[in-house]
Amino acid sequence: MTLPLSVFAAGSLKSAFTPLCQRFSAVSGVPVALTFGPAGLLRERIEAGERCDLFASANTAHPQTLRNKGLTLATHTFAFNQLNLTVRKTPATEKADWLSLLADPGLRLGTSTPGCDPSGDYTWALFDKIEQRYPQIKLKARAAMLVGGRDTLTVPPGQIASAWLIRHHLTDLFIGYAHYAKALTAADDLRILAIPEVYNPRCEYQLALLTTGAESLADFILAAEGQTFLREAGFLTAKTE
After folding, report:
1. Most buried pick, 11, 19, 29, 70, via CB within 10 A?
2. What is the DSSP letter of 3?
3. Whole-angstrom Cα distance, residue 173 to residue 82?
4. Where in the chain is CATH 3.40.190.10?
5. Residue 1: predicted pLDDT
6. Are 40 and 62 in contact (CB under 8 A)?
7. d(CA 86, CA 84)
8. Which residues pair with 145 in a beta bridge?
9. Neighbouring residues of 73: CB distance < 8 A, sequence distance ≥ 6
10. Under a CB-based contact definition with an 8 Å cutoff, are residues 119 and 200 in contact?
């Protein structure tokens, strides 16, 4: 019996990779076992020797770390993302702009965890850009790292971190990936605010091919059909057809 391909993927890819890998298995006959989690922690599991054929990271740093250690056969950028701001909708927040909300010390600010999760790294880069222009706004000092770490909260399956944390009154604001906005468009209790590009870091997703057995899946992700699954989940891609 053929072992399924072992794919480690950043948690933000779940809405895209679940149907994508199902489609790949249907057309190729090759089963896929998906493991989702913070990309930094997944990289550590690969370094510790855990079996993985293909690693899909939410940044380039983790695949390149594996490459520098001689653990990859190839790396490929396959998608892009941005950050946005989710806030509980109240009379006080309903008309405020994104920067006013972030700067409000009366609102609790939640993030993912830098180092363990690229979302946290991108968020810290965003904070750096904001604080360079507005040094009086001390965002890192206020931010609570609620998810994506070794001992942080676990978001229940099927839930989006920003919505779940806000609805359970664990935070008032959350910085997360912009592709989730597509799934939250009907949420009348939340506001989803775009962050201007001048501040917004470019979130680059990269594959690390670890065994030759996963070449066909990597090719599928990079080809037109795989890219369509990513776009439908709200990601930005290089391929438009």
Report:
1. 11
2. P
3. 17
4. 5-80+202-232, 83-194
5. 57
6. yes
7. 7
8. 111
9. 209, 210, 211, 212
10. no
Strands 54-57, 109-112: parallel, antiparallel or unpaired by DSSP? unpaired
Apex CA 119: angle with CA 55 and CA 204, to 5°? Answer: 55
Helix segments in the chain, DSSP class H: 14-28, 39-47, 61-68, 98-103, 118-133, 139-142, 161-167, 215-222, 224-232
Closest CA to 24 of 43, 5, 2, 51: 5
What residue type is 188 in one-letter code?
D
Give the homologous superfamily in CATH for domain 83-194.
Periplasmic binding protein-like II (3.40.190.10)
Residues 6+ apart with CB under 8 A from 228: none
How do 54-57 and 83-88 pair as beta strands?
unpaired
Q: Percent of the chain having pLDDT more than 70?
A: 98
Give me the amino acid identity at 73. L
d(CA 209, CA 130): 36
Instruction: Pull the structure tokens for residue 110.
Output: 């939640």
**Residue of higher predicted confidence among 239 and 40:** 40
Is the separation of the CB atoms in 207 and 76 below 8 Å?
yes
pLDDT, tens digit (0-9, with 9 covering 90-100), for 127-178: 999 999 999 999 999 999 999 999 999 999 999 999 999 999 999 999 999 9
Say which residue the tokens 């670890």 belong to. Answer: 210
Q: What is the CATH topology of the domain spanning 5-80+202-232?
A: D-Maltodextrin-Binding Protein; domain 2 (3.40.190)
- Please write the tens of the pLDDT for every residue from 87-122: 999 999 999 999 999 999 999 999 999 999 999 999
Q: Give the Cα separation of 13 and 230 in Å (integer).
A: 8
Which of 168, 207, 190, 152 has its CA nearest to residue 16?
Answer: 207
